[in-house]
Amino acid sequence: MKCEILKIMNNNVIWVQDDKNKAETVLIGKGIGFGVKPGQQVDIPQEAIDKVFITYDQKTMKDYIALAESIDSNIMEVCTEIIIYAEEKLGKLSHRVYPVLTDHIAFAIERLKSQMVIQNPFLMEIKGIYQDEFEIGLRAQSMILKKIGIDITEDEVGFIALHLNAARENKEVKEIMKNTRLIKTVIDNIEAALDYKVDMDSFTYQRLVSHIKGSIERARLGQTIKNPLLESIKVEFANAYIIAAKIRTTVERELSIKISDDEVGYMAIHIARISNKAEL
């Protein structure tokens, strides 16, 4: 890409003007800003840009530039490195993750400098539901400590994981937070009904959560699945089906969606597996 360097935000972020269409663009990539100067005409290899993205929409670009001009350059740089690392592990993320996550981390660092610690009420659920994102959050914790000298808390790691999942699914963080809160309620209800504490590290838990998330997403998209064993499940796993039906009521009320009997039947199978473990 042939362009003029307008501003170097850090070694990984530059603000340029495209020679071809004269559009101003923010480019992000590993080392993309190293060794260049404002006013310089450069030809940046396409592969150096494609690791992240080429252009922002105008609002996102303006938000990101304003943010870059208002926070410490070291914070800006480490946030960029965190997101690049996250994309290497998770694949392409929504471009909104750059201003949104950077702003969150910058604010978190300022809070911690002022001894203001915020608890994450969904930390255990985040660890269980968003394992990949949480692992990246732990890596971010290490990167921030090395670059900034601030050791962010595990609660903050959890919040970073939520932002990464939102970017991964191209959704708002508040929607991911709402779903996480709902899944916590569902698991709490199952545990209360069975008088059994579910192991969040277990494969059984992961499959249950995966099905709940899938059911919600299918209901939102108007998709249906067929459960050929539904009538047998109602008989063989009667108690589990009753619990699953109550959960359906909770989910439908909270999200204003409709969950089919077929979905309830599959959920009952997962609950029955947990029930069997509880009886051992």
From TrEMBL:
One of its GO terms (biological process) is regulation of DNA-templated transcription. Gene3D superfamilies: CAT RNA-binding domain, PRD domain. Residues 70-174, 175-280 form the PRD domain. Keywords: Repeat. The keyword Repeat applies. It holds the Pfam family PRD. It comes from the Bacteria. The keyword Repeat applies. GO terms for molecular function: RNA binding. This is Antitermination protein BlgG. It comes from Petrocella atlantisensis. The lineage of its organism: Bacteria, Bacillati, Bacillota, Clostridia, Lachnospirales.
